[in-house]
Write a structure and sequence with these properties.
The protein has 502 residues and is of the alpha+beta class. It has 3 domains: 4-37 and 176-248 and 465-492, Periplasmic binding protein-like II (D-Maltodextrin-Binding Protein, domain 2, 3-Layer(aba) Sandwich); 53-165, Dipeptide-binding Protein, Domain 1 (Dipeptide-binding Protein, domain 1, Alpha-Beta Complex); 250-462, Dipeptide-binding Protein, domain 3, CATH 3.10.105.10. The chain has 14 helices and 19 strands. It has helices at 4-15, 46-55, 102-113, 161-165, 210-219, 231-238, 268-277, 280-286, 317-326, 345-359, 372-381, 399-404, 422-433, 437-454, and strands at 27-31, 60-62, 68-70, 73-79, 82-87, 128-135, 138-143, 180-187, 190-195, 201-206, 224-226, 243-258, 292-294, 335-342, 363-370, 386-391, 457-470, 473-474, 491-492. Strands 1, 8, 9, 10, 11, 12, 13, 14, 15, 16 and 17 form an 11-stranded mixed β-sheet that branches. A 4-stranded antiparallel β-sheet has the order 4-5-7-6, with helices on one face. Strands 2-3 form a two-stranded antiparallel ribbon. Helix 1 (4-15) packs across helix 5 (210-219) and helix 7 (268-277) runs antiparallel to helix 9.
Length: 502
């Protein structure tokens, strides 16, 4: 008997039968969500950050162990609070032909540091006291406190100083010095870049529904896609001739967030009850087809600052009910919450399972799903009780200041739950000030243990990375953090027909 997935795909194939396979040309990449901005000074959503990596160069990159390495600059630490960055010869030509200089670096970071500009990256960089550019190739950063991790914070794409002064709209007209340049962006869901090494065109197409996205891959209307697929569609694609699937363990961190300014969720016992009501292992096995691993902290245990000793909240419904009773809730007086989620079908299904598991301990949850832009806007504005999101591409522990410090409430950062904890602030500040890397790692591990105890969000799991492409597409390397850098070596090698006929 045909699976429900195949029957649905077959039905949709009929509906899309009038669509003809696109001729070879641009390398077409299917996205669940369109980028919100191509201005690296403001980009905080995953699609924007990943595409901006292709458009802009950064002072610093990371190796496979999340250690900072030179990007377009090498650095020397002259004192605990003084760093000199020397720009190298590569990556220094903006797409309009002008040369990237130290002045551009200084202007880019000065803009972020100006509170009037409300950059979400400012909170992670407030340790910068001042920046100088003594010559075209040298940038000097003077800090107001020591931080051994400082070079790893300088990962924002560099934009031209003259266009900053002219108030250029980088969000829709990016101008960087990255390996790709904007070709056009005719509509929100369709964006084309030109790869400078060979002129190849890469087209990013927003297809929100994962089943339709898979259909378009099968029909040749897109060439490749990455993540945001339910496991049954991944399995289906792996069985199709003419489709190649890559999968690897990932570090993207899924969590359930709380609004801690809500009087109900401000109660630690309520948050702990929710954590004990969630059966992560069953969700990972049944809904995620084991393509994830349980998480107890934002950083995975293999990260140099990860805490491998932490364990997730155990699935314990009796404990959850007892905590709710202690907080004054019962069958006659149930806890009622709203849970906001994007309208992605698979994320909705996950939310429905969480809703069911919470109902089993007496928590009534009403789901509210929205298109991505509305959902993300509400989360940043604090208009929620519960929500689900993932942190993607995390490399350095400065994420903790950005996500959990009391001074990082949007728009100053991404403390979307409005977490305000003096001990967490102190551990963040002590870790940032630590000079010895081992002491710094110890403090970050202590911070993650404290976050697990105080529970500003429930850690859920680290999702695997998945990539699927037609077999006439070669050269893509799937990264652990899900960036799109593999597109820099992707090429078309032949012709394939994978029409969904059976």
């Amino acid at each position: 008997m045909k699976s429900a997935v195949f029957v649905l795909l077959l039905a949709l194939t009929g509906l899309l039968g009038a669509c003809r396979e696109q001729p070879p040309g641009a390398l077409r990449f299917g996205l669940q969500s369109a980028p919100l901005t191509l201005d690296p000074r403001y980009a905080s959503d995953a699609a924007s950050a990943r595409i901006n990596r292709l458009l802009y160069r950064r002072l610093v990159e990371f190796d496979d162990q999340a250690r900072p390495i030179p990007g377009i600059a090498r650095w020397t630490q002259l004192s605990p609070t003084h760093y000199r960055f020397t720009l190298g010869p590569d990556g220094r030509r903006f797409h309009d032909g002008t040369r990237l200089s130290a002045v551009d670096v200084k202007a880019s970071y000065d803009f972020i540091l100006d509170p009037a500009n409300a950059s979400p990256h400012r909170s992670a960089l407030t340790l910068i006291d001042r920046i100088t550019a003594p010559d075209q190739d040298t940038v000097e950063f003077f800090l107001n406190r020591p931080d051994a991790l400082f070079p790893g914070y300088l990962v924002i794409g560099i934009v031209p100083a003259r266009l900053i002064a002219a108030k250029h709209g980088f969000e829709h007209a990016p101008l960087g010095s990255g390996p790709c340049a904007l070709l056009d962006w005719p509509e929100e869901g369709r964006l084309r870049l030109r790869r400078l090494s060979d002129g190849a065109v890469m087209e990013f197409l927003r297809v929100a529904d994962p089943t339709v996205r898979v259909l378009k891959l099968l029909r040749g209307e897109i060439d490749m896609l990455q993540n945001d697929l339910p496991p049954e569609l991944v399995k289906y694609l792996a069985q199709r001739q003419g489709i190649a699937v890559q999968q690897r363990r990932g570090s993207n961190f899924a969590y359930l967030g709380f609004n801690l300014r809500d009087p109900v969720l401000a109660q630690p016992g309520v948050r702990q009850a929710i954590a004990h009501a969630i059966d992560r292992n069953t969700i990972i096995h049944t809904l995620l087809s084991d393509a994830a691993r349980p998480a107890a902290a934002l950083l995975p245990p293999e990260h140099w600052a990860g805490n491998a000793q932490l364990r997730t909240y155990r699935f314990d419904p009796p404990r959850a009910r007892a905590l709710l009773a202690a907080a004054g809730y019962s069958g006659q007086h149930p806890l009622r919450l709203t849970y906001k989620i994007s309208n992605d079908p698979f994320r909705l299904r996950l939310a429905t399972v969480l809703q069911s598991q919470l109902a089993a301990v007496g928590i009534e949850v009403r789901l509210q799903s929205y298109d991505w832009g509305t959902f993300y806007g509400d989360i940043k504005a604090g208009r929620f009780q519960l929500y689900s999101l993932s942190w993607v591409g995390i490399q350095t522990p400065d994420i903790f200041r950005y996500a959990y410090h009391s001074q990082s409430i949007p728009p100053e950062g991404a403390n979307r739950g409005r977490y305000n904890d003096a001990q967490a602030d102190l551990l963040i500040e002590q870790a940032e000030a630590a000079v010895d890397p081992h002491e710094q790692a110890r403090l970050y591990r202590a911070l993650q243990a404290h976050l697990l105890t105080t529970l500003p969000a429930v850690p859920l799991w680290y999702e695997d990375q998945v990539y699927a492409a037609r077999t006439d597409i070669a050269g893509y390397a799937l990264s652990a953090n899900g960036d799109y850098d593999g597109l820099l070596k992707t090429r078309r090698v032949g012709v394939v027909d994978v029409r969904a006929a059976n």
